[in-house]
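Hi C.,

You asked whether I'd gotten around to modeling the 290-residue construct. I have! Everything is below, sequence then structure, no commentary in between.
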Amino acid sequence: MLTPEHLHALHNLPLAAKRAAEGLLHGAHASRRRGAGLEFSQYRPYQPGDDLRRLDWRLAARSDRYYLRESEVDTSLAVHLVLDATASMNHRDDNGLTKLDYGRLLCAALAYVASQQGDAVALTILHPAGLRHLPPRADARQLPRLYHALATAEAAGSFPDAATLAPLTARRQPALTICVSDLYEEEGEIERLLTRLRAASGEVLLLHLLAHNELAFTFRGAVTFEDLETGRTLQLDADQQRRGWQQHLQQWLRDTAQRARTHGFDYYQLTTAEPLTNALREFLRRRSLA
């Protein structure tokens, strides 16, 4: 199993996405199932309560038995990837990866897995200069488009304003929205966006991304912290403040998870130090319920 830093060292998003998903897709939920579809699959005996319109009357006349025609039904989804590219995603972990580096790898791997399942994949990169949006498609050229958009994304500024985000929530297209974000916000703007996306599109899977060094607070001695979005600084002794920091952070994480679930989001926390397969499995688990 390749670590995130090994995947990042490939400097090749298509290859990294494929390597991250290797071995994961075996036994994954198939994109087609039997039911009332278009492509004929097989017959099965009639059971009380079945739709009589699916009875094969010609076969019944020949055999004096009642059979239903079953077909393969496409169960593909529209998967909408939303990547937070605000300045806080430039935070760098001890393994050398920024949150944006990890987010790029994760979105690329999610797009690869979704496309292998026959899903149409969309991508939105959020930054204050405007939305970078690729609408959902399932054609062969979509993955290269997504990889290029991810590879060239840069984190900067604060979260986009409501007017910039309006086109996203105006589209009422059923989809599974997957948001990758560290959830650093000023006044609940990310929560509001995801609430509107859930109302407009359906299910939301929130992948809350943290750096391992901020979760474990691995800093030592006198440290100056800078807010990457506002430029404000804070000086403290990391050894003295570690316990208080971790208590405060754990309370914030509990509150964040509770609010997300209250809004009906599927919430999953991960760090930049863990393999991508954990989040990919969560996506496949959520997809199997769709």
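If it helps when you're writing up: The chain has a mean pLDDT of 86.

Thanks,
B.
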